Amino acid sequence: MDALEPLDPQFVQDQLSRHPFVAVAGVINVRDLGGLPSRLYPNLATKPGYLYRSAELSGITDEGKVRFKELGISQVFDLRSDTEIAKYNTPGPEIDGVQISHVPVFKKEDYSPEMMAKRYQLYASGKTEAFMELYSQILDHGGPSFGTILRHVRDRPNEPCLFHCTAGKDRTGVIAAILLKLAGVDNDAIAQDYALTRIGREPARAMIMERLNKEPLFASNSEAALNMFTCRDITMLAFLDLLEEKYSGVEAYVRRFTGLGDEDIATIRRNLLVPAADLAASSKY
């Protein structure tokens, strides 16, 4: 599936109509992180209808806003930088009843021409080791942003939220992995969720390529542009190894970079999980 040519439209449509994908008009790559079994707690699974991930929301339609209300989403965390929001003219929307919090992983100074050139070179390579350098940067910078999301889970277990970056892949994928690791979800299942972004982004393929073609590196190198679509499960598995080896595991990372303690982590884990038996009656899980 991770060949970088366009995916079969019927295959994409079929996949997008199934859990964990959620249809929200004007937004791509929306997924529910619920229903994943916990390896550490065999009788528990991640809570459905609570944590959602997606790409940017700037194109959400009125119909999509109604869908937010139906899903009960009352809080959005936008991980994008001020620089990229301005560059692509994609401000966050106003959605009645939804609090949108801007919690950028990277600050303006992290978007200097030199930094962006290096980051684009890493993305363009499509290599797993390049993504590990990128994801290590996300971990090193993202503690305050991720801490805000984790505190929501700790303090508001009954208020569904959504977090997103631009594509809903890298920064979004890192915090999704952190949450799922805290819930004890198996690495393979986390990697499979990550890889679904390959499908979730497909409806916006033309728009993404149009954006990339405005960047000199990608305009002159179509293969590099196509590598921006890569979303392999082995990349996430390598990231989870990185999290363990460089950061001493998810709990140690959370304690060091977000300032949360063991009691907070225990509460977060409890709020992320529900009895697996409760999901058995639903055909989605």
UniProtKB/TrEMBL annotation:
<dbReference type="InterPro" id="IPR029021">
    <property type="entry name" value="Prot-tyrosine_phosphatase-like"/>
</dbReference>
<dbReference type="Pfam" id="PF13350">
    <property type="entry name" value="Y_phosphatase3"/>
</dbReference>
<dbReference type="InterPro" id="IPR016130">
    <property type="entry name" value="Tyr_Pase_AS"/>
</dbReference>
<feature type="domain" description="Tyrosine specific protein phosphatases">
    <location>
        <begin position="129"/>
        <end position="200"/>
    </location>
</feature>
<dbReference type="GO" id="GO:0004721">
    <property type="term" value="F:phosphoprotein phosphatase activity"/>
</dbReference>
<dbReference type="InterPro" id="IPR000387">
    <property type="entry name" value="Tyr_Pase_dom"/>
</dbReference>
<protein>
    <submittedName>
        <fullName>Protein-tyrosine phosphatase-like protein</fullName>
    </submittedName>
</protein>
<dbReference type="InterPro" id="IPR026893">
    <property type="entry name" value="Tyr/Ser_Pase_IphP-type"/>
</dbReference>
